[in-house]
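Input structure tokens:
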């Protein structure tokens, strides 16, 4: 079975982790700050705050933005659960904006219409989580204009987009978002096994993010309510969490970062090859968002189901039986039972639902060989041509 994604670990990665194992620090040590600084520099951002995973990163980013009970968070329904759940963790209400039928990212014009209606009834969002689906930013320039007009905070969920660019600059630079969240899960662009990071250019946000990831504690006398009792002293000044990354994870992430350009180039090569080899089949291929250069975490196609002999599920299962580990990203979040219990229903976001009925994620990762990709294309061709009776 060819998986849809997998990590690429080399001897340098192993050596980096072993070095930490042989050091004095397994957690809360120097490897974390080194990884944060390297990631921030790579993305042209001022501050990086590493945490245990990207879900934790989204949670504390929302808290740092002041999200709480009585507030609204809006995001795309075409995303992983965490992009919406982070709002619920803060006690906020969550709503969605349908996706663009071409790019499959949040539709910023639909957002503009929804914001106008929300202003009229006093239900504007405090935070909009803009998901860089598959590795490609949405229309962040237009989104930033709307954020200024309607006074909400933009958090870019760039879990798929380490190494991507938008408007000629690295995703994470902070030009169009107050905070950017990255994921370092094994199937992502680089990995720290588990791990995430928030990038920001605002020192006050960075300070609060660091405090929130570590129980709400501070050793800074300026933040304390009374004079220090001694060198051991700390205070908990707000409710925080144990969301810390270990030095083992940070060392792996830092080592992987050295190969980021190579990883992204290989993914871009494979995506371009798919675009060429899949032409002419009854598939809708991914399209580029203006000003965006994708990191290609995912390569998603959509079946043109009209006239096909087999169903979406039959094609999916047939490809898996043939040894191609396709996946589906994503089930629209508003269709999950938890969110339906909050009032969402089938038909609320028709573009996301139509996308879900047609989508397949094909394997893409740096270690995928040309010959393996040829086999994948052969099997896709077989199944969709069999399905259409051609």
């Amino acid at each position: 079975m060819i998986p849809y994604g997998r990590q690429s670990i080399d001897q340098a990665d192993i050596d980096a982790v072993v070095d930490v194992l042989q050091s004095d620090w397994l957690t809360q040590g120097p490897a974390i700050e080194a990884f944060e600084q390297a990631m921030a520099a790579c993305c042209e951002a001022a501050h990086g705050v590493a945490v245990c995973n990207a879900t934790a990163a989204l949670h504390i980013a929302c808290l740092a933005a002041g999200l709480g009970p009585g507030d609204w968070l809006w995001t795309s329904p075409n995303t992983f659960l965490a992009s919406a759940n982070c709002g619920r963790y803060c006690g906020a209400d969550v709503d969605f904006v349908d996706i663009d039928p071409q790019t499959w990212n949040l539709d910023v014009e639909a957002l503009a219409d929804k914001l106008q209606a929300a202003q009229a009834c006093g239900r504007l969002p405090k935070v909009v989580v803009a998901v860089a689906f598959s590795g490609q930013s949405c229309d962040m320039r237009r989104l930033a204009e709307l954020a200024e007009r309607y006074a909400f905070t933009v958090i870019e969920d760039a879990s798929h987009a380490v190494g991507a660019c938008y408007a000629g600059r690295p995703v994470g630079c902070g030009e169009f978002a107050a905070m950017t969240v990255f994921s370092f899960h094994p199937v992502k662009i680089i990995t720290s096994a588990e791990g995430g990071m928030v990038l920001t250019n605002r020192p006050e946000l960075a300070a609060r993010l660091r405090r929130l990831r570590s129980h709400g504690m501070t050793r800074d006398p300026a933040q304390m309510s009374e004079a220090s009792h001694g060198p051991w002293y700390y205070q908990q000044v707000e409710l925080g969490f144990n969301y810390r990354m270990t030095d083992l994870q940070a060392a792996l992430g830092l080592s992987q970062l050295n190969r980021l350009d190579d990883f992204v180039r290989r993914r871009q090569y494979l995506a371009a090859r798919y675009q060429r080899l899949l032409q002419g089949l009854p598939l809708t291929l991914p399209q580029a968002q203006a000003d965006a250069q994708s990191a290609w975490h995912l390569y998603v196609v959509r079946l043109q189901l009209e006239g096909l002999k087999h169903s979406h599920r039959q094609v999916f299962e047939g490809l898996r039986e043939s040894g191609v580990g396709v996946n589906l990203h994503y089930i629209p979040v508003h269709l999950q039972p938890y969110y339906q219990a909050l009032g969402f229903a089938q038909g609320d976001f028709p573009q996301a639902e139509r996308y879900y009925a047609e989508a397949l994620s094909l394997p893409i990762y740096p270690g995928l060989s040309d010959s393996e990709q040829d086999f994948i294309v052969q099997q896709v061709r077989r199944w969709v041509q069999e399905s259409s009776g051609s």
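DSSP finds 13 helices and 15 strands in the chain. The two ends are 27 Å apart (CA to CA).
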